[in-house]
Amino acid sequence: MWRGLSALATQAAWAPLRLCARCSTGAESLVPRSTIFALSSGQGRCAIAVIRTSGPASGLALRSLTALREPPPARKACLRLLRHPCSGEPLDRSLILWFPGSVPGLRPAEAGEFTRRAFANGKLSLPEVEGLADLIHAETEAQRRQALRQLDGELSQLCQGWAKALTKALAHVEAYIDFGEDDNLEEGVLEQADRDVRGVEAALGSHLRDARRGQRLRSGANVVVTGPPNAGKSSLVNLLSQKPVSIVSSEPGTTRDVLETPVDLAGFPVLLSDTAGLREGVGAVEQEGVRRAHQRLEQADIILGVLDASDLASASSRSFLDTVVAPLVAQSHNSGGQRLLLLLNKSDLLSANAPACDTALPPHLLMSCHSGAGMDHLLQALKTELAVVCGDPTTGPPLLTRARHQYHLQGCLDALGHYQLATDLALAAEALRQARRQLNHLTGGGGTEEILDLIFQDFCVGK
Question: Cys-Cys with 415: which of 167, 214, 357, 434 at CB 3.0–4.6 Å?
Fold first, then answer.
Protein backbone atom coordinates (compact mmCIF):
# COMPACT_ATOMS: atom_id res chain seq x y z
CA MET A 1 0.00 0.00 0.00
CA TRP A 2 1.45 3.36 -1.06
CA ARG A 3 0.18 6.68 0.30
CA GLY A 4 1.01 10.29 -0.55
CA LEU A 5 1.19 10.21 -4.36
CA SER A 6 0.12 13.24 -6.36
CA ALA A 7 -2.51 12.76 -9.06
CA LEU A 8 0.10 12.88 -11.85
CA ALA A 9 2.40 10.46 -10.05
CA THR A 10 -0.54 8.14 -9.46
CA GLN A 11 -1.08 7.79 -13.20
CA ALA A 12 2.63 7.20 -13.72
CA ALA A 13 2.72 4.50 -11.05
CA TRP A 14 -0.46 2.99 -12.46
CA ALA A 15 1.03 2.26 -15.89
CA PRO A 16 3.69 -0.29 -14.82
CA LEU A 17 1.15 -2.11 -12.70
CA ARG A 18 -1.16 -2.45 -15.70
CA LEU A 19 1.81 -3.55 -17.82
CA CYS A 20 2.57 -6.29 -15.27
CA ALA A 21 -1.09 -7.29 -15.37
CA ARG A 22 -1.09 -7.65 -19.17
CA CYS A 23 2.14 -9.62 -19.15
CA SER A 24 0.88 -12.06 -16.53
CA THR A 25 -2.61 -12.66 -17.96
CA GLY A 26 -1.61 -15.68 -20.01
CA ALA A 27 0.10 -17.37 -17.09
CA GLU A 28 -2.55 -16.56 -14.47
CA SER A 29 -3.94 -20.08 -14.55
CA LEU A 30 -0.52 -21.33 -13.37
CA VAL A 31 -0.55 -19.02 -10.35
CA PRO A 32 -2.35 -20.39 -7.28
CA ARG A 33 -3.72 -16.93 -6.44
CA SER A 34 -3.64 -13.79 -8.56
CA THR A 35 -2.46 -10.40 -7.37
CA ILE A 36 -4.88 -7.49 -7.55
CA PHE A 37 -4.39 -3.72 -7.38
CA ALA A 38 -6.63 -0.66 -7.22
CA LEU A 39 -6.70 3.04 -6.47
CA SER A 40 -8.38 2.90 -3.05
CA SER A 41 -8.72 6.66 -2.57
CA GLY A 42 -11.01 7.06 -5.59
CA GLN A 43 -10.66 8.76 -8.97
CA GLY A 44 -10.23 12.49 -9.61
CA ARG A 45 -7.86 15.28 -8.60
CA CYS A 46 -6.79 15.14 -4.98
CA ALA A 47 -3.87 16.01 -2.71
CA ILE A 48 -2.89 12.38 -2.07
CA ALA A 49 -3.68 8.99 -3.53
CA VAL A 50 -3.65 5.49 -2.04
CA ILE A 51 -2.70 2.53 -4.25
CA ARG A 52 -3.46 -0.84 -2.70
CA THR A 53 -2.26 -4.28 -3.81
CA SER A 54 -3.03 -7.73 -2.46
CA GLY A 55 -1.54 -11.06 -3.52
CA PRO A 56 1.74 -12.89 -4.04
CA ALA A 57 3.26 -10.44 -6.59
CA SER A 58 2.88 -7.37 -4.37
CA GLY A 59 6.54 -7.56 -3.32
CA LEU A 60 7.73 -7.68 -6.93
CA ALA A 61 5.62 -4.64 -7.82
CA LEU A 62 6.94 -2.74 -4.79
CA ARG A 63 10.60 -3.50 -5.55
CA SER A 64 10.17 -2.51 -9.21
CA LEU A 65 8.80 0.89 -8.23
CA THR A 66 11.26 1.65 -5.42
CA ALA A 67 14.43 0.11 -6.95
CA LEU A 68 14.97 -1.80 -3.71
CA ARG A 69 16.56 -5.23 -3.60
CA GLU A 70 14.61 -6.03 -0.47
CA PRO A 71 11.20 -4.70 0.66
CA PRO A 72 11.05 -2.32 3.63
CA PRO A 73 10.47 -3.69 7.16
CA ALA A 74 7.12 -5.41 7.49
CA ARG A 75 4.21 -3.43 8.97
CA LYS A 76 6.23 -0.24 9.29
CA ALA A 77 5.52 2.95 7.33
CA CYS A 78 8.58 4.07 5.35
CA LEU A 79 9.20 7.12 3.14
CA ARG A 80 10.51 6.07 -0.29
CA LEU A 81 11.13 7.67 -3.70
CA LEU A 82 9.02 5.99 -6.35
CA ARG A 83 10.64 5.58 -9.80
CA HIS A 84 9.37 4.33 -13.12
CA PRO A 85 10.53 0.67 -13.27
CA CYS A 86 11.72 1.00 -16.90
CA SER A 87 13.09 4.54 -17.27
CA GLY A 88 14.05 5.14 -13.65
CA GLU A 89 12.33 8.54 -13.80
CA PRO A 90 11.34 9.85 -10.34
CA LEU A 91 7.56 9.84 -9.80
CA ASP A 92 6.93 11.04 -6.26
CA ARG A 93 7.80 10.50 -2.63
CA SER A 94 5.48 8.07 -0.91
CA LEU A 95 4.75 6.34 2.37
CA ILE A 96 4.97 2.57 1.92
CA LEU A 97 3.35 -0.09 4.10
CA TRP A 98 4.51 -3.63 3.40
CA PHE A 99 2.67 -6.79 4.46
CA PRO A 100 4.80 -9.70 3.16
CA GLY A 101 4.13 -12.26 0.22
CA SER A 102 5.58 -13.07 -3.45
CA VAL A 103 5.38 -14.61 -7.18
CA PRO A 104 4.32 -12.97 -10.48
CA GLY A 105 0.72 -12.27 -11.56
CA LEU A 106 -1.05 -8.92 -11.20
CA ARG A 107 -4.53 -7.80 -12.28
CA PRO A 108 -6.91 -4.93 -11.48
CA ALA A 109 -9.11 -5.62 -8.45
CA GLU A 110 -12.84 -6.07 -8.85
CA ALA A 111 -15.30 -4.05 -6.78
CA GLY A 112 -15.18 -5.21 -3.18
CA GLU A 113 -12.53 -7.86 -3.85
CA PHE A 114 -10.22 -6.82 -1.00
CA THR A 115 -13.09 -7.17 1.46
CA ARG A 116 -14.23 -10.41 -0.14
CA ARG A 117 -10.77 -11.87 0.40
CA ALA A 118 -10.89 -10.77 4.03
CA PHE A 119 -14.22 -12.58 4.36
CA ALA A 120 -12.89 -15.71 2.62
CA ASN A 121 -9.90 -15.75 4.96
CA GLY A 122 -12.07 -15.49 8.05
CA LYS A 123 -11.05 -11.93 8.92
CA LEU A 124 -14.64 -10.62 8.62
CA SER A 125 -18.04 -12.26 9.09
CA LEU A 126 -20.81 -11.63 6.56
CA PRO A 127 -22.70 -9.17 8.82
CA GLU A 128 -19.42 -7.28 9.31
CA VAL A 129 -18.99 -7.12 5.52
CA GLU A 130 -22.54 -5.78 5.24
CA GLY A 131 -21.72 -3.24 7.95
CA LEU A 132 -18.72 -2.06 5.95
CA ALA A 133 -20.88 -1.70 2.83
CA ASP A 134 -23.44 0.29 4.83
CA LEU A 135 -20.67 2.49 6.23
CA ILE A 136 -19.43 3.27 2.69
CA HIS A 137 -22.95 4.31 1.63
CA ALA A 138 -24.02 5.98 4.91
CA GLU A 139 -25.50 9.44 4.35
CA THR A 140 -26.65 10.32 7.87
CA GLU A 141 -25.15 10.18 11.35
CA ALA A 142 -27.57 7.48 12.52
CA GLN A 143 -26.69 5.27 9.53
CA ARG A 144 -22.99 5.74 10.22
CA ARG A 145 -23.35 4.75 13.87
CA GLN A 146 -25.40 1.66 13.06
CA ALA A 147 -22.95 0.59 10.33
CA LEU A 148 -20.01 0.95 12.73
CA ARG A 149 -21.74 -1.23 15.31
CA GLN A 150 -22.34 -3.94 12.73
CA LEU A 151 -18.79 -3.61 11.39
CA ASP A 152 -17.52 -4.05 14.96
CA GLY A 153 -19.19 -7.48 14.97
CA GLU A 154 -22.01 -6.94 17.48
CA LEU A 155 -24.59 -8.89 15.46
CA SER A 156 -22.08 -11.65 14.66
CA GLN A 157 -21.15 -12.01 18.33
CA LEU A 158 -24.82 -12.19 19.26
CA CYS A 159 -25.42 -14.98 16.74
CA GLN A 160 -22.30 -16.82 17.89
CA GLY A 161 -23.60 -16.71 21.47
CA TRP A 162 -26.93 -18.19 20.38
CA ALA A 163 -25.15 -20.84 18.32
CA LYS A 164 -23.00 -21.77 21.33
CA ALA A 165 -26.12 -22.20 23.49
CA LEU A 166 -27.76 -24.39 20.84
CA THR A 167 -24.57 -26.46 20.47
CA LYS A 168 -24.63 -27.08 24.21
CA ALA A 169 -28.30 -28.11 24.05
CA LEU A 170 -27.59 -30.42 21.11
CA ALA A 171 -24.71 -32.03 23.01
CA HIS A 172 -27.05 -32.73 25.94
CA VAL A 173 -29.72 -34.25 23.70
CA GLU A 174 -27.23 -36.44 21.85
CA ALA A 175 -25.64 -37.50 25.13
CA TYR A 176 -29.03 -38.63 26.38
CA ILE A 177 -29.65 -40.51 23.11
CA ASP A 178 -26.31 -42.32 23.39
CA PHE A 179 -26.03 -42.79 27.14
CA GLY A 180 -29.54 -42.37 28.52
CA GLU A 181 -29.57 -45.84 29.97
CA ASP A 182 -26.20 -45.44 31.73
CA ASP A 183 -26.03 -44.58 35.39
CA ASN A 184 -23.10 -42.21 34.79
CA LEU A 185 -25.19 -39.60 32.93
CA GLU A 186 -25.98 -36.54 35.02
CA GLU A 187 -29.59 -35.92 36.00
CA GLY A 188 -31.55 -33.13 34.37
CA VAL A 189 -29.66 -33.22 31.04
CA LEU A 190 -32.77 -32.80 28.90
CA GLU A 191 -34.18 -30.15 31.25
CA GLN A 192 -30.98 -28.13 30.84
CA ALA A 193 -31.26 -28.43 27.04
CA ASP A 194 -34.86 -27.17 27.23
CA ARG A 195 -33.80 -24.17 29.32
CA ASP A 196 -31.06 -23.28 26.81
CA VAL A 197 -33.49 -23.50 23.91
CA ARG A 198 -36.12 -21.38 25.68
CA GLY A 199 -33.51 -18.71 26.36
CA VAL A 200 -32.53 -18.54 22.69
CA GLU A 201 -36.19 -18.54 21.62
CA ALA A 202 -36.95 -15.56 23.85
CA ALA A 203 -33.96 -13.60 22.52
CA LEU A 204 -34.84 -14.37 18.89
CA GLY A 205 -38.47 -13.37 19.42
CA SER A 206 -37.38 -10.05 20.92
CA HIS A 207 -35.16 -9.23 17.93
CA LEU A 208 -37.76 -10.28 15.38
CA ARG A 209 -40.32 -7.96 16.97
CA ASP A 210 -38.28 -4.88 16.05
CA ALA A 211 -40.91 -3.86 13.43
CA ARG A 212 -38.23 -3.55 10.69
CA ARG A 213 -36.57 -0.64 12.49
CA GLY A 214 -33.08 -1.57 11.31
CA GLN A 215 -34.20 -1.82 7.70
CA ARG A 216 -35.81 1.61 7.93
CA LEU A 217 -32.61 3.02 9.39
CA ARG A 218 -30.65 1.62 6.46
CA SER A 219 -33.04 2.58 3.64
CA GLY A 220 -34.94 5.53 5.12
CA ALA A 221 -38.27 6.12 6.89
CA ASN A 222 -41.32 7.28 4.94
CA VAL A 223 -42.49 10.66 6.29
CA VAL A 224 -45.64 11.96 4.57
CA VAL A 225 -46.91 15.54 4.85
CA THR A 226 -50.69 15.75 4.57
CA GLY A 227 -53.58 18.07 5.37
CA PRO A 228 -56.30 20.16 3.75
CA PRO A 229 -55.47 22.53 0.86
CA ASN A 230 -53.54 25.72 1.56
CA ALA A 231 -52.46 24.68 5.07
CA GLY A 232 -48.75 25.16 4.28
CA LYS A 233 -47.73 21.58 3.45
CA SER A 234 -45.44 22.53 0.56
CA SER A 235 -43.84 25.31 2.60
CA LEU A 236 -43.08 22.79 5.34
CA VAL A 237 -41.53 20.32 2.86
CA ASN A 238 -39.32 23.06 1.42
CA LEU A 239 -38.32 24.16 4.92
CA LEU A 240 -37.42 20.63 6.08
CA SER A 241 -35.55 19.74 2.89
CA GLN A 242 -33.91 23.20 2.67
CA LYS A 243 -34.56 23.37 -1.06
CA PRO A 244 -37.53 24.33 -3.32
CA VAL A 245 -39.06 20.87 -3.78
CA SER A 246 -42.67 22.03 -4.12
CA ILE A 247 -44.38 25.03 -5.66
CA VAL A 248 -45.78 27.35 -2.97
CA SER A 249 -48.85 29.40 -3.87
CA SER A 250 -51.82 30.98 -2.12
CA GLU A 251 -54.05 29.18 -4.62
CA PRO A 252 -55.52 26.00 -3.05
CA GLY A 253 -54.73 22.69 -4.79
CA THR A 254 -51.35 23.66 -6.23
CA THR A 255 -49.83 20.24 -5.45
CA ARG A 256 -51.62 17.55 -7.45
CA ASP A 257 -49.13 14.67 -7.26
CA VAL A 258 -46.83 13.08 -4.70
CA LEU A 259 -43.47 14.87 -4.62
CA GLU A 260 -40.64 12.98 -2.92
CA THR A 261 -37.20 14.06 -1.71
CA PRO A 262 -34.59 12.28 0.44
CA VAL A 263 -33.76 14.29 3.56
CA ASP A 264 -31.44 14.00 6.55
CA LEU A 265 -33.72 14.83 9.49
CA ALA A 266 -32.01 15.03 12.88
CA GLY A 267 -29.41 12.52 11.67
CA PHE A 268 -31.95 9.95 10.39
CA PRO A 269 -32.54 9.10 6.70
CA VAL A 270 -36.02 10.09 5.53
CA LEU A 271 -37.99 9.97 2.28
CA LEU A 272 -40.14 13.10 2.65
CA SER A 273 -43.36 13.22 0.59
CA ASP A 274 -45.52 16.24 -0.20
CA THR A 275 -49.09 15.27 -1.11
CA ALA A 276 -52.18 16.91 -2.60
CA GLY A 277 -54.54 18.71 -0.20
CA LEU A 278 -57.33 16.43 0.99
CA ARG A 279 -60.74 17.72 -0.11
CA GLU A 280 -63.79 16.63 -2.11
CA GLY A 281 -65.70 18.10 -5.04
CA VAL A 282 -62.69 18.94 -7.24
CA GLY A 283 -61.70 18.24 -10.84
CA ALA A 284 -60.51 14.91 -12.21
CA VAL A 285 -56.80 15.74 -12.02
CA GLU A 286 -56.95 16.90 -8.40
CA GLN A 287 -59.12 13.89 -7.51
CA GLU A 288 -56.33 11.64 -8.76
CA GLY A 289 -53.89 13.60 -6.63
CA VAL A 290 -56.11 13.11 -3.57
CA ARG A 291 -56.34 9.38 -4.30
CA ARG A 292 -52.55 9.14 -4.50
CA ALA A 293 -52.25 11.12 -1.27
CA HIS A 294 -54.46 8.60 0.56
CA GLN A 295 -52.43 5.75 -0.96
CA ARG A 296 -49.17 7.28 0.25
CA LEU A 297 -50.64 7.80 3.74
CA GLU A 298 -51.13 4.04 4.02
CA GLN A 299 -47.39 3.52 3.35
CA ALA A 300 -46.19 6.20 5.79
CA ASP A 301 -44.13 5.47 8.89
CA ILE A 302 -44.63 8.99 10.25
CA ILE A 303 -47.43 11.36 9.21
CA LEU A 304 -47.07 15.12 9.54
CA GLY A 305 -50.63 16.44 9.61
CA VAL A 306 -50.69 20.17 8.81
CA LEU A 307 -53.58 22.52 9.64
CA ASP A 308 -53.99 26.27 9.28
CA ALA A 309 -54.01 27.53 12.89
CA SER A 310 -56.04 30.57 11.82
CA ASP A 311 -58.71 28.49 10.07
CA LEU A 312 -59.46 25.53 12.34
CA ALA A 313 -63.23 26.00 12.11
CA SER A 314 -63.36 25.53 8.31
CA ALA A 315 -65.09 22.50 6.82
CA SER A 316 -61.85 21.18 5.30
CA SER A 317 -60.01 21.40 8.65
CA ARG A 318 -62.82 19.64 10.58
CA SER A 319 -63.07 16.95 7.88
CA PHE A 320 -59.32 16.30 8.09
CA LEU A 321 -59.49 16.05 11.89
CA ASP A 322 -62.41 13.60 11.72
CA THR A 323 -61.29 11.37 8.83
CA VAL A 324 -57.48 11.33 9.22
CA VAL A 325 -56.36 12.56 12.63
CA ALA A 326 -58.99 10.89 14.83
CA PRO A 327 -58.41 7.32 13.47
CA LEU A 328 -54.63 7.73 13.82
CA VAL A 329 -54.96 8.96 17.41
CA ALA A 330 -57.28 6.03 18.18
CA GLN A 331 -54.73 3.46 17.01
CA SER A 332 -51.70 5.27 18.49
CA HIS A 333 -51.64 2.84 21.42
CA ASN A 334 -50.52 0.15 18.99
CA SER A 335 -46.71 0.43 19.09
CA GLY A 336 -46.43 -0.99 15.58
CA GLY A 337 -48.87 1.52 14.09
CA GLN A 338 -48.22 4.74 12.21
CA ARG A 339 -46.90 7.74 14.11
CA LEU A 340 -48.67 11.12 13.88
CA LEU A 341 -47.38 14.63 14.52
CA LEU A 342 -50.16 17.22 14.27
CA LEU A 343 -48.86 20.67 13.31
CA LEU A 344 -50.79 23.95 13.50
CA ASN A 345 -49.08 26.14 10.92
CA LYS A 346 -49.41 29.91 10.31
CA SER A 347 -49.16 30.81 13.97
CA ASP A 348 -47.93 34.22 12.82
CA LEU A 349 -51.48 34.97 11.59
CA LEU A 350 -53.01 34.53 15.05
CA SER A 351 -53.81 37.75 16.84
CA ALA A 352 -52.26 38.36 20.25
CA ASN A 353 -55.65 38.15 22.01
CA ALA A 354 -57.00 35.16 20.10
CA PRO A 355 -56.81 31.67 21.64
CA ALA A 356 -53.80 29.74 20.34
CA CYS A 357 -55.87 26.70 19.44
CA ASP A 358 -58.97 24.64 19.99
CA THR A 359 -58.70 22.93 23.37
CA ALA A 360 -60.48 19.88 21.93
CA LEU A 361 -57.58 19.14 19.57
CA PRO A 362 -55.28 16.17 20.20
CA PRO A 363 -51.63 16.89 21.16
CA HIS A 364 -50.04 19.20 18.59
CA LEU A 365 -47.24 21.65 17.83
CA LEU A 366 -47.76 25.33 17.02
CA MET A 367 -45.44 26.72 14.35
CA SER A 368 -45.00 29.07 11.42
CA CYS A 369 -43.28 28.10 8.16
CA HIS A 370 -43.19 31.80 7.29
CA SER A 371 -41.27 33.00 10.37
CA GLY A 372 -39.65 29.71 11.37
CA ALA A 373 -41.17 29.86 14.85
CA GLY A 374 -41.59 26.42 16.41
CA MET A 375 -39.17 24.67 14.01
CA ASP A 376 -36.80 23.67 16.83
CA HIS A 377 -39.64 21.93 18.67
CA LEU A 378 -40.71 20.19 15.46
CA LEU A 379 -37.21 18.89 14.74
CA GLN A 380 -36.87 17.59 18.30
CA ALA A 381 -40.26 15.86 18.06
CA LEU A 382 -39.26 14.35 14.70
CA LYS A 383 -36.00 13.09 16.19
CA THR A 384 -37.93 11.35 18.97
CA GLU A 385 -40.39 9.76 16.53
CA LEU A 386 -37.66 8.67 14.12
CA ALA A 387 -35.73 7.04 16.96
CA VAL A 388 -38.84 4.94 17.65
CA VAL A 389 -39.45 4.09 14.00
CA CYS A 390 -35.81 3.47 13.00
CA GLY A 391 -34.32 2.48 16.34
CA ASP A 392 -31.59 4.30 18.24
CA PRO A 393 -28.22 3.07 16.92
CA THR A 394 -26.42 4.29 20.05
CA THR A 395 -28.24 2.08 22.56
CA GLY A 396 -29.71 -1.37 22.93
CA PRO A 397 -28.98 -4.56 21.00
CA PRO A 398 -27.82 -4.43 17.36
CA LEU A 399 -30.56 -3.81 14.82
CA LEU A 400 -31.43 -6.15 11.95
CA THR A 401 -30.67 -3.99 8.92
CA ARG A 402 -31.45 -6.44 6.13
CA ALA A 403 -34.26 -8.80 5.17
CA ARG A 404 -31.64 -11.57 5.05
CA HIS A 405 -31.09 -11.21 8.80
CA GLN A 406 -34.82 -11.46 9.47
CA TYR A 407 -35.13 -14.50 7.22
CA HIS A 408 -32.42 -16.56 8.92
CA LEU A 409 -33.43 -15.61 12.46
CA GLN A 410 -37.04 -16.52 11.67
CA GLY A 411 -35.80 -19.83 10.22
CA CYS A 412 -33.87 -20.49 13.43
CA LEU A 413 -36.94 -19.69 15.54
CA ASP A 414 -39.13 -21.97 13.41
CA ALA A 415 -36.65 -24.82 13.83
CA LEU A 416 -36.69 -24.34 17.61
CA GLY A 417 -40.49 -24.56 17.44
CA HIS A 418 -40.09 -28.01 15.84
CA TYR A 419 -37.74 -28.92 18.69
CA GLN A 420 -40.40 -28.11 21.25
CA LEU A 421 -43.01 -30.20 19.40
CA ALA A 422 -40.73 -33.17 18.64
CA THR A 423 -41.94 -36.46 20.13
CA ASP A 424 -38.70 -38.24 19.30
CA LEU A 425 -35.25 -37.24 20.57
CA ALA A 426 -33.69 -37.87 17.14
CA LEU A 427 -36.11 -35.35 15.59
CA ALA A 428 -35.39 -32.89 18.39
CA ALA A 429 -31.66 -33.16 17.71
CA GLU A 430 -32.22 -32.58 13.99
CA ALA A 431 -34.29 -29.47 14.77
CA LEU A 432 -31.38 -28.09 16.81
CA ARG A 433 -28.98 -28.78 13.92
CA GLN A 434 -31.30 -26.92 11.55
CA ALA A 435 -31.51 -23.97 13.95
CA ARG A 436 -27.71 -23.79 14.19
CA ARG A 437 -27.47 -24.02 10.41
CA GLN A 438 -29.66 -20.91 10.02
CA LEU A 439 -27.40 -18.94 12.37
CA ASN A 440 -24.38 -20.19 10.46
CA HIS A 441 -25.88 -18.93 7.18
CA LEU A 442 -26.51 -15.52 8.74
CA THR A 443 -22.88 -15.06 9.79
CA GLY A 444 -21.57 -16.31 6.45
CA GLY A 445 -20.80 -19.98 6.83
CA GLY A 446 -22.21 -22.02 3.97
CA GLY A 447 -23.34 -18.95 2.03
CA THR A 448 -23.90 -19.46 -1.71
CA GLU A 449 -21.95 -17.53 -4.33
CA GLU A 450 -25.16 -15.88 -5.54
CA ILE A 451 -25.79 -14.36 -2.10
CA LEU A 452 -22.18 -13.21 -1.82
CA ASP A 453 -22.29 -11.64 -5.29
CA LEU A 454 -25.45 -9.73 -4.32
CA ILE A 455 -23.85 -8.40 -1.13
CA PHE A 456 -20.59 -7.37 -2.79
CA GLN A 457 -22.13 -5.78 -5.91
CA ASP A 458 -22.42 -2.33 -4.28
CA PHE A 459 -18.80 -2.17 -3.07
CA CYS A 460 -16.45 0.31 -4.70
CA VAL A 461 -13.21 -0.62 -6.46
CA GLY A 462 -10.28 -0.51 -4.04
CA LYS A 463 -12.34 -1.72 -1.10
Answer: 434
